[in-house]
Hints:
By secondary structure, the chain is of the alpha/beta class. It has 11 helices and 20 strands.
Amino acid sequence: xxxxxxxxxxxVTLKPGRxxxxxxxxxxxxxxxxxxxxxxxxxxATVDLHAADGTWLAxxxxxxxxxxxxxxxxxxxxxxxxxxxxxxxxxxxxxxRAPLVDADHDAVRLVHAEADGLPGVVVDRYAxxxxxxxxxxxxERHREAIVDALVAATGARTVVERSDAEVRALEGLPMRHxxxxxxxxxxxxxxxxxxxYRVDVLGGQKTGFYLDQRDNRALVxxxxxxxxxxxxxxxxxxxxxxxxxxxxxxxxxxxxxxxALALALANLAANPTLAASRATWAEADVFSELRVLRNRGxxxxxxxxxxxxxxxxAALASRAARAYKDINLLALKMLAPGGLLATFSCSGGIGxxxxxxxxxxxxxxxxxDATIVARLAATADHPVxxxxxxxxxxxxxxxRR
Length: 401
């Protein structure tokens, strides 16, 4: 079907009955749903998706190397996928985040992939620097238009691309990593809740910082006063600084990465009002160190478990469940009566109900009675559409013993 410019796209036809998810505006089409496609469609090309009866369904990006064969850009038949399309989507995403940025918070997720109608596009802003991830063939094809639209919408002086996630390989795409606009001399500065941070946008995990935990860091800060805090998988010290700002008596922070801990120490030094003498740092395998602490009889009043992704897909959920249960069991055994445990999973293959069952099993094995004080999720700049629940990857529980 031609769009309003008169352009005709390659045609892809679904098997009978496989159009239901697209009719509900779920943006993904898997390879098994396809009946027929025009020959030799290039990676990232825009295609028109049709039901078996010929009904037009969506305009999508084609990913011939991926099990997710097409990702819908739009469900409006008259919408072309061009530079104006990306400008409109990015302008809307930036405007939606405006209420989350102020003098105390100058870091925010600007584009959250499917939730902003831009599958495979992730953009985080750290003050005047943008970090862009293009994780699928469609965004890769429109790379320049996306970067141009971001600069126009934000006035950012620096744009870094971190298209180096493993999912790129599933798209048949090479890793791409580096500065695409402006320059970077080292870690870039940002502020969250009045605290100063340095972010390694070129070498850090994901885009350099975990902006999705902003509200949960504020929650830890709220509950930290007078408590002995353990921050496991501390990375560059986000929860550590929040706990110190909240008046924690002590904070032990553990991570296996020496460079991450070095940046955590720099972050602490950038906030001279915090009591650095109350912070202790340990470079160690977290699983092993938790066992050492348990064997020593260590106790804490507030524990944060924010591990890396153990299960990127549902196929790895069983193996990941053992890891989640292990660390939660160890933490609960060290949690003092009346203490709080903030425990998280960022694994897309682990659902909220399953995660709660795993933590409940850990509590039972630890012979600890625990109460759910709050269910935790990502900050509002990481929205989830009703049509795409897979976007809700971060889940957490705040437990009281």
